[in-house]
Amino acid sequence: MKEEILDEIRNQVVTELIKKRPWISEIDFQSESQSFRDLSSGLGPFTELLERANCTDLFINANDGVWIKEGAGLKKLDYLINEELLINFIRLQALRVGKHFDQAHPAIDLELSEGIRLHALFPPLVEHGVHVSIRVNQKQAHPNCNDFYGEVLTLIIESKRNFLISGGTGSGKTTFLSHLIEKIPEEQRILVIEDTREILAKHSHMLRLQSRGSNSEGLGAYSARELIRQALRMRPDRIYLGEVRGSDVLDLLLALNTGHEGSGGTIHANSPRDVPNRVAALAMTIGIPREGALALFASSINLIIHLDGKRDGNRISSISRVVAREKSVFVEEILSVDEDFSLENLLALKKALIL
């Protein structure tokens, strides 16, 4: 219904354009009409590119053109986006959420539509013009998604072990978390906390809480830390943090110690063994001693699920358990996945989760 109304408004504007400028050539008319449709649509001048089935990342590097990621690598496109139209579109989207994009406000993060986020920089922070990075959250099956994969997801959820999903940028952490959430029984109440809407899971009892930054007057900010505290008052069965990236790590770990079994989140890390140190480093930014942070981590997190997107797209690399011994924290691998899941993999994981 909303899109039908927008189409009607666009058609009325185009009709008025014809009435007021009857001398305009057919080529100029088509160009102006397309520019208006791009400006007023949800994806703006990126519509054609972002509708490509396998697009996961799009980059507009000012005078260096347009680059796209469709699978494992980046490639440059023979495609031009008018910078004036680009800036006007970003400014329009910014105004809709009380933000500005100009020399006084040269950096911005926006959500274009479900699962698509935009980051843009304005000169003088970058050279030669506006730079834009767009991330598309592809909620699709992993390359090694088969019957065993589905059973692994079910095992993790049924075990009610708290977990962190680790991996590099673009490794598929959010996609994997979405798949996990869809395995949760519908009678369980789920709270998802994000700064941008990226978790696209379909679940009848999933509530979304979304943090926000301050407006141009410096007011209205609401952090993930505050949302975690609110979530605890909403009687959830499970809590998921879209990405652990700062001081929110403390509130998440404390929440996982309060009976919300099977909860977790995602975190950037190069390997499972890097995760404890990454968590400790984040906690130390708010004055938590390293030893205390590691102790809290070991008592809150049971599993680390690591994803590797370097070779053939999003894939599970390993599943490890967190073990505390003699005031130290260890990460022990219980499942390594080379290519596909096998019955042997599944039995090993099932045995480990029962222990």
Automatic annotation (TrEMBL):
Q: Which CDD domains match?
A: VirB11-like_ATPase (cd01130)
In terms of SUPFAM superfamilies, this protein maps to: P-loop containing nucleoside triphosphate hydrolases
Q: Extract the GO molecular function terms from the UniProt entry.
A: ATP hydrolysis activity
The family database entries (InterPro entries) matched by this protein are listed as: P-loop_NTPase, T2SS/T4SS_dom, T4SS_GSP_E_ATPase
Q: Which residues form the Bacterial type II secretion system protein E domain?
A: 129-305
PANTHER family to which the protein is assigned, alphabetical: TWITCHING MOTILITY PROTEIN PILT, TYPE IV PILUS RETRACTATION ATPASE PILT
Q: What is stated as this protein's family in its record? A: Belongs to the GSP E family.
Q: What is this protein called?
A: Pilus assembly protein CpaF
Q: Which organism is it from?
A: Candidatus Fonsibacter lacus
